[in-house]
Structure formats: C-alpha cells, structure tokens
Amino acid sequence: MTLSDQLHAEMVAAYEITGKEIGYWGRYFLRSVKHNGGLATAKRMLQKKLKNPSDQKGFRALVEAGRPDLSLESLVLNPRFRPLFTPDELAEAQRRLDSVPNYSRRKNIPSETNYPEDLQDEREYTERAKKTITVNAYERDPKARAVCLKRHGYACHVCHMRFEEVYGDIGRQFIHVHHRKPLAGRRAPFPFR
C-alpha cells in the first residue's frame, strides 16, 4: 500500500471516527475523498487560504467538540504523511491548527486521576437501589414501512431527492418515512393507510 493509499484510508477512517465520536458526518468531505482520492482532496482543501479557519464547517465542528486532533490538518502534519505535501501546504495546515484556542485542545489526563478513589471508608453507600420509571413508547410496524417504500420508493416526497444519487453507496435504500398525520395526539393503536 502506497503512502498516498494510506492517507486515503486514514481520511475515510477519520470521517467515521468524527461521525461516531462527535456526531458530525462530513458527507461532502467523504464524497470528495471517494471521488477524487484522499491526497487530491487534502491538497485542494489546503489551497484555500482561509482568513478564519473556523469558517470551514467541519473544522469548526471539530474545534467546538475539542477534537482538532481529528482534523485533516492534523493528519497532514503527521510525520508519516508530511512527504506528500509541499512546504506551503504544511504551513497552511499548521497555521490553521495554531488558530485553535488552547481550551479546545485535547488534554492527556492520566487515567488514575479520572476516577479518584476518595470515598470515605466509614460511610455506607447504597448501590442498586430500585427505581421505577414509566415511559410511553410507540411501536413501529416494520411491515408498514416496507409497504410505504414499495408504494412510494426511495425518493423524498417533498423535494424528490434520492440519497443514493447525492451520497453514493452510503445513501442506497436510505430515507426517513414519516406519517402524513403526526403520531402525537393520536390514540394507539391506529392502522396504517
């Protein structure tokens, strides 16, 4: 696997980690990586001399979540990938990371300080106390969804967008199915039409 292929794989992995850890799914980023390749995408993104790097939505989301270490800029500055980039591209990546406030940088905290054992030995603590919580949950019938998709397909009824056309394979057979009349306020059970 070439160094360029390794960068590509790391960029796809960064997309997944960012989505799972902070809930930001940079789909345009992923689409560009898959269509143009990781190296070409990184170089194109670093060509833009952003006056304020936080104007870039993905970078801002990472900074706000305290995870600039997941950014493209951090990946570019990784010693393993530095040979793929020009001095100007490396300088731009460094400038962007330098703009991140200190409070937004991940800190290495020793694991023994995360859960200090400072419980008082003389005191009695209650664990596993039983507590009753009542919640209403409405069951959805998967057969109703299947009938709806068979009848209406995977195009949005409002804007006619198909996720697969916009997002590629990741959007295949993806769509939210909504009720014409909201479930809230209805008496259960009620039939699907």
Looking at this protein, list some descriptive labels.
flat; single chain; 193 residues; 2 domains; mainly alpha
Give me the secondary-structure topology:
Layout: H1 3-22, H2 27-36, H3 38-47, H4 57-64, H5 72-76, H6 87-98, H7 142-152, H8 163-167
Query: Major sheet: size, sense and barrel closure?
Result: none
Strand content: under 5%
Uncertain ranges = none
How many helices does DSSP assign? 8
List the secondary-structure elements in sequence, H or E.
HHHHHHHH
Radius of gyration: 24 Å
How many domains, as an integer? 2
- Average pLDDT metric: 83
Tell me the distance between the termini. 53 Å
- Structural shape: flat
Query: In total, how many beta strands?
Result: 0
Overall SS class = mainly alpha
Instruction: Tell me roughly what share of residues is in helical segments.
Output: 40-55%
Report on this structure.
The protein is mainly alpha-helical and 193 residues long. It has 2 domains: 3-102, no CATH class; 135-186, no CATH class. The chain is built from 8 helices and no strands. It has helices at 3-22, 27-36, 38-47, 57-64, 72-76, 87-98, 142-152, 163-167.
